[in-house]
């Protein structure tokens, strides 16, 4: 595993190591299941607006292609590295398998702060990255999607760049595109809606009414904001929200409509309020029924886990809880965990729908998209809980075991070529 390093990859590796003994995978099979099939590193030079040339490093990791093409987002962030991208690709594999999608996991990224670029520079970098990736991606090889720091517009640039090189429009090469150029209705909201839907199922399971229940959302980006708004529509009171610029908390509940109006104008939370300003380091440990970490990896460590005062931990982000924190939560036994590969899978599920619709050139109404997505989420949710009850394992172990088992069985049945 010398190609991959860093705390996020180490976390994904350690999570995987808890599974093979439980589901009795022979030692000699384990590296083939965990090791990514392919990793690509590219240099992406662009002309800056001041006339200088800047070079940014880009990555794409494809974990396995056992069931079909790989699938995964593209992240623009200053601290992105190959190890983090590999970890995210591995988690995506278990996520797709748990949901029953015909994909392996992938992830891509560029080490850049997207907010430091002008729109012209962002377009130039996005197109150059896709140009470098053309030999390695395609509708039946690897289908990129948005992630942190990217959006519908970036996906449109990706699709257009790929299409220009093919000499025809290939909408199915990426998902998360604007509806006007082959995207599907409901894709942008899909991850957040999925989080809220599974929180609703968890509340039912625990006998808690959403009317009067309370929630805190860390990370008020696409996933966090849609989760908060959807939960508020269900009657849940939102006590706290944060992003990388500001944090707000009010035990009486925040005015979510006013926050949305502010974010629509400013793009970020900063400047919304001085009265509700709060210490972001303490937000996660405030009393609430539902805690949604929807920002970045590894925000809940063992110390934070010991101090959590929530009943449901709904992981909107990828990898927000460390293995040490999992141990603390398992010992506590009073927190209902919705693990990331289940909780935030609504996005890849609706991305799958977009891919299918693009291939068929037949598009669905939003009600059908939501109905089908909820159906898949409910099936995965019940499979995980049945496994928990049958084997007495944690929610994360049950979810990962289902995903790993499907990947292992697929590799066994296909065999090893040549």
TrEMBL record:
Binding site for substrate: 71, 95, 351
Site residues (Important for catalysis), renumbered to this chain: 147
Boundaries of every Glutamate/phenylalanine/leucine/valine/L-tryptophan dehydrogenase C-terminal domain copy: 184-415
Sites where the protein binds NAD(+): 191, 222
GO biological process: L-glutamate catabolic process
This protein's record includes keyword Nucleotide-binding: yes
Gene Ontology molecular functions: glutamate dehydrogenase (NAD+) activity; nucleotide binding
Active site: 107 (proton donor)
Entry's family note: Belongs to the Glu/Leu/Phe/Val dehydrogenases family.
Protein's name according to its UniProt entry: Glutamate dehydrogenase
